[in-house]
């Protein structure tokens, strides 16, 4: 049975899919790896367990992602001074620069599209929709 919510959900998903593809077309890091960098940039150092919880993925998956990101020089791992079993993961300067670059890739296209394809009224309407989209994801910032 079709509901208003079901129809809206399908329409929204079909509208967002090409937008998401375009925003990510030229990124060089996966969404999961970018999520790790974003979390570290916004919250500071973290453990693998904290990153896995934040990303809602398994400890094994986060361990693989952390190893790969570390091999790129974007993060460092440092043993805790008090508890040698705990390892802190921190963003490096190169990681901050890479995150800024990855974020800017899709933003340039999106800024142009908004400026060139939408009217002033449509831009205001789109701006009003952003808080609603964030609300759907529990208030999380959309990257």
From TrEMBL:
Residue ranges of domain HTH marR-type in the record: 5-135
Database matches in PROSITE patterns: HTH_MARR_2 (PS50995)
Organism whose genome encodes this protein: Rhodococcus rhodochrous
Protein name according to UniProt: MarR family transcriptional regulator
GO terms, molecular function: DNA-binding transcription factor activity
């Amino acid at each position: 049975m079709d509901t208003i919510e079901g129809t809206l959900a399908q329409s929204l998903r079909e509208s967002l899919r090409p937008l998401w593809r375009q925003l990510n077309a030229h990124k060089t890091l996966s969404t999961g790896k970018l999520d790790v960098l974003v979390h570290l940039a916004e919250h500071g150092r973290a453990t693998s367990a904290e990153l896995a919880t934040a990303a809602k993925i398994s400890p094994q998956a986060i361990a693989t992602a952390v190893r790969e990101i570390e091999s790129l020089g974007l993060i460092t791992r440092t043993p805790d001074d008090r508890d040698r079993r705990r390892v802190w993961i921190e963003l490096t300067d190169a990681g901050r620069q890479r995150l800024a670059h990855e974020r800017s890739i899709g933003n340039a296209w999106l800024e142009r599209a908004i400026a060139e394809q939408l009217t002033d009224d449509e831009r205001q309407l789109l701006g009003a929709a952003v808080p609603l989209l964030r609300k759907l994801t529990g208030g999380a910032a959309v990257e």
